[in-house]
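[09:14] KT: can someone run the structure on this one? pasting the chain below
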Amino acid sequence: MQRYFVAPEQMTEETVVLTGEDARHMGSVMRGKPGDPFIACDGQGRDVLANITSVNKDAIRADIVRTLPDSAEMSWRVTVAQSLPKGDKLETVIQKGTEAGAYAFQPFLSRRTVVQYDDRKEAKRLDRWRKIAKEAAEQSHRSRIPEIRAVCGWKSLLGQFGQYDIVLFCYEEEGRTGEGMRRVLAGFRNRTAKAGAPGVLLVVGPEGGFAPEEAEEAMTAGAVWIGLGKRILRTETAALYALACLAYEAGEMGGESNA
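[09:31] RB: done, structure tokens below
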């Protein structure tokens, strides 16, 4: 069934209205007509089943039939901090990371970032990244759209570490020693078993990895170094691989849940 995210003000206790691109998609692409059902989400945890009552090119109105259970969100709130990669790799991380359950994305610049960052193009790129996240959230039946934050610098990212219950710093040197995520996450899961939805920051470096000085700075700021196995992963693969591991540890796929 088609799913759309709407602004909270577009949804009342009894009705919901689709506007803009969503209305055009439902009306022109999906050929929606009165009586057809769809799912609407306000992005704040309220998902409803609604039936169309009227259709025009600018707005589709519907009556809410019932509220649906919120069951598609990961119990850990995982923010992916991704050093800007080349080309459209960040789009892949956002799209697939949204499907995998990421709570938010924080692009950043690090010492070995090879992308020539142009802040004049920032607004346009943010709009595109947010559209990708919205479409991926709809496709994967999420109840909320991950937040896509503006690109920040390395020092700014370090300053955010204190906002999270744990900061996982993906470091290939740690992987070579055989130290992985499982032991770290087992202890973390036990500490946060009844603490609600813990916040996790997953920090992934650029194509050239992190400089040793950055790894030391991250640890000093409170991060835990983790390895992602004995193989060297591409930057876009590392983020998704780690998200899958976190989803398992959070109880998504039969792992031990902290709920």
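[09:33] KT: thanks! The two ends are 29 Å apart (CA to CA).
[09:34] RB: yep, looked fine to me
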